[in-house]
Amino acid sequence: MIRPVPITLSDIHQRFLFEDYDIRGEIVSLRQSAAEVYRHNPYPAALQAQLGEFLAAAALISANLKAAGTITVQARGDGPVPLLMADCTDRRDLRAIARMPDSGALLSNDLRQLVGSGHLSITVTMPGRERHQGIVPLEHSRLAACLSDYFARSEQLPTRLWLAADSGRPQACCCRRFRYNARRSQNANVAGSISPPWPTPSPPTSNWHSATARGCTGCFTANGCASTTRRRCGSRAAVRARVSVAPSLPSGRTRCASCWRARRWCRPSASSVTNATTSPRPNYPPRRSARTPPCTDRLLPPGFFLHNWRPHARTSAPVTQRQDSPMARTETAAVNVHADLSTAELIELALQRGEGVLTHSGALLTTTGRHTGRSPADRFIVEEPSTSEDIAWGPVNRPFASERFDALWSRVEAHLAEGDRFTSDLHVGQDPEHYLPIRVTTETAWHSLFARNMFIRPPRFNPSGKEPWKVLHAASFACDPHRDGTTSAGAVIIHFAQRKLLIAGMRYAGELKKGMFSVQNFLLPEKDVLPMHCAANVGEAGDVTLFFGLSGTGKTTLSADPDRYLIGDDEHGWTEGAVFNLEGGCYAKTIDLSHENEPVIWDAIRFGAIVENVVVGKHRIPDYSDTALTENGRCSYPLEHVAMRCVPNRAGEPSNIIFLTCDVTGVLPPVSVLSKEGAAYHFLSGYTARVGSTELGGEAGINPTFSTCFGAPFMPRPAGVYAELLMKRAESFGSRVYLVNTGWTGGSGGAGGGGKRFPIPVTRAVVAAIQSGALDDVETINLPLLNLAVPRHVPGVDDHYLIPRKNWADPATYDAQAHKLAGLFIENFKRFDVAAAIVAAGPRLD
């Protein structure tokens, strides 16, 4: 626990007033108290300088407190120093905290570089009262500029602020224009400027220039000032700004309860001297009584917070931190625990907390910092006896020690306990038997909204009384690889035995849904249910179509058909008699999104939706073609935003199964009919293209890849388990299987390839032909090398698209590319031990 340090007599806290310009100000200089704080916190010198500015700012702002309480100035972000904080109480006790990074990260004095992308908050905590907090984005390199921005946004009086912490002596100066006198301004400014000029004091140093000031010197009542207005009272006296005024009261004086703006020392009457000298808390302002003027009722000056900010506490309770926790910083902390908030409440809080802004359509716009996609290298599964034999350990499913997980879970719990948090009770899986109850805890409102969008919001939580899974999401927590056993500052860890999912240091929201999808991918096969990385929709006749494919292949776009009912866009389970959605919303890529090609997604991006990592222009209109932030821009929205949706979120078994592949080589045809063995071959292969930035560290552009079962990053069990379940379900119901290429034609999609991607209307026509039954018994042509059966005719599709070799300017170049792709298929499939008939259904080089 960090102990508070009192401000001592060697420190300075002085107020002054420029009479000619109606500008008041304060000076804070901390010498001995700062040295004590540094002694209790042995931080490097560069970090001490930053903490010094926070200490000076907290001491300066805390002068506005008029009751018992604490002012906290805090900066949080995703940089090497994710937390810098200082607080000061009404008793003038100081405290400072910083989360230590690697020593190499302390070379910069730039606050933004140290803290990273984040926010600055000022919090007022008072016993027995709701906590108030104001937040602004961290947009400047120095704390003084960030605070000035905060004051401007909170609509306060015009304010200038200077901070310095050189030579181990934190100092602050604040000037504020508290009223405007036009006549005085004209007299002072010969040019007749409308606004009075600002004084320009030098940055805080030990030698301050002189300034004429006036203060309250003549109070005549025992309980405060004789004046009952908010004007300064008493006579005027000239003082020097360099005069040191100890924060403890001079003998025989007390605070003025009426002129709370001035907060000067006032001369009491004889009857109050005894109270002032014997009070155990001489610094504490007089409590309000019948004799106290009305102006003391306010605890803070007007406009200290934004006019529309409120204390965000729907469900709040005092929380006592564990004192044995290494993250514990205070003995007790009143935090707000927001339970099961509505969409509107979460959006309101996200805006108040500076987590995002609204776009022109009403969607919440957010950014995720460095992580703009999933981070496969940071995904782990706890190795423990009950599940270790059933998991395919390797680069995808990386083991994690159980004892290290327990320690890290405790640290993240303590981290979340330090501030407000958001909880939601949700389901994963729209099935009365196979649903999974989860309790999601996040530290941000927008991640809680994401969970509410993407998981199922049941009318009754956990009706079967299952043991819920616990999900902790701490976006700002920084893991220590040496201490925690992770590979970086972020981690996604699943513990099946304890029914826990831990996500730390990851702002990219997709980790939440993919983490729970991975859980269901392990649990459902035990119940003879096939978990699938696919989209699904259903027609008027009840015919269901599944769309398998990795991100960027068109699952969401093609399943969002204006003429069919959407079940879901990404993750489903297939049990005997039904296909059910694992989710309650959609998570679509936004790159090149247009109303013409994707009207369902376009119309779904409105209030309640989240737009992630998308550049906006004038009037906050998103530019979906701008990939300056990432190619993996995303939008999350609940299924209620889709007019043509399957309300039960489940339907019958699929008549048609479509494997979507984004072929960057331009070799594959737009559609192929697969046999049962061919379906198994291509399901195990999972050939597609990896879209740049879908995963952290992924290559830019589009690159060919193989992802087993079209979802290898989320499959904890061996691939054969899922392939056998697919063949069993498809053969039992008689489902037809197709391979549909949404990639390139007429050439490759690589640099200088000359190919063009299939137009979305062409692919939609292919899908429509499949769903109408037009391709059930169609005549086909076999493509050599690739061993694919291609329909001779597809209704609504120009025949020249069907045979890809005819679209290439140089057929010989096509043959070379086809030979190369066939070799990639064959080499990749060598790792599978399957029946010879399945191997024979794939490409051949002989």
Structure characterization notes:
The chain has 846 residues and is α+β, with helices and mostly antiparallel strands. The protein is built from 18 helices and 41 strands. It is elongated, with a radius of gyration of 33 Å. 49% of the residues are buried.
Can you give me a brief rundown of this structure?
With 846 residues, the chain is an alpha+beta fold.
Strand content: 15-25%
Helical residue percent band: 10-25%
In DSSP terms, counting alpha (H) and pi (I) runs of 4 or more, how many helices? 18
Shape: elongated
pLDDT averaged residue by residue: 79
**Rg, Cα atoms, Å:** 33 Å
What distance lies between the first and last C-alpha atoms, to the nearest angstrom?
Answer: 72 Å
Strand order of the largest sheet: 13-14-19-20-21-23-22-17-18
In terms of structural class, how would the helical and strand content be classed?
Answer: alpha+beta
Question: Which runs of at least 5 residues are low in confidence (pLDDT < 50)?
Answer: 180-333
Largest sheet data: 9 strands, mixed
Please report the total strand number as a whole number: 41
Keywords, separated by commas or semicolons:
alpha+beta, 41 strands, nine-stranded mixed β-sheet, 846 residues, single chain, 18 helices
Write the SSE topology.
Elements: E1 5-6, E2 12-18, E3 23-29, H1 32-40, H2 45-61, E4 70-77, E5 83-89, E6 93-98, H3 111-115, E7 118-125, E8 132-137, H4 143-153, E9 159-164, E10 171-177, H5 182-188, E11 254-255, E12 265-266, H6 270-278, E13 316-319, E14 333-339, H7 343-352, E15 357-358, E16 364-366, E17 379-382, E18 398-400, H8 402-417, E19 421-428, E20 436-442, H9 445-454, E21 469-474, H10 481-484, E22 491-495, E23 500-504, H11 510-523, E24 530-538, E25 544-548, H12 555-559, E26 565-568, E27 571-575, E28 578-581, E29 585-589, H13 599-604, E30 610-612, E31 634-638, E32 650-651, E33 654-661, E34 671-674, H14 676-685, E35 687-691, E36 702-706, H15 719-733, E37 736-741, E38 744-745, E39 756-757, H16 760-772, E40 780-783, E41 788-791, H17 811-829, H18 836-840
Parallel strand pairs: 14-19, 16-30, 17-18, 17-22, 20-21, 21-23, 25-33, 33-37
Antiparallel strand pairs: 1-6, 2-3, 3-10, 4-5, 4-7, 5-6, 7-8, 9-10, 11-12, 13-14, 15-16, 19-20, 22-23, 24-25, 24-26, 24-27, 27-28, 28-32, 29-31, 30-31, 34-37, 35-36, 38-39, 40-41
Helix pairs in contact: 7-9, 14-15
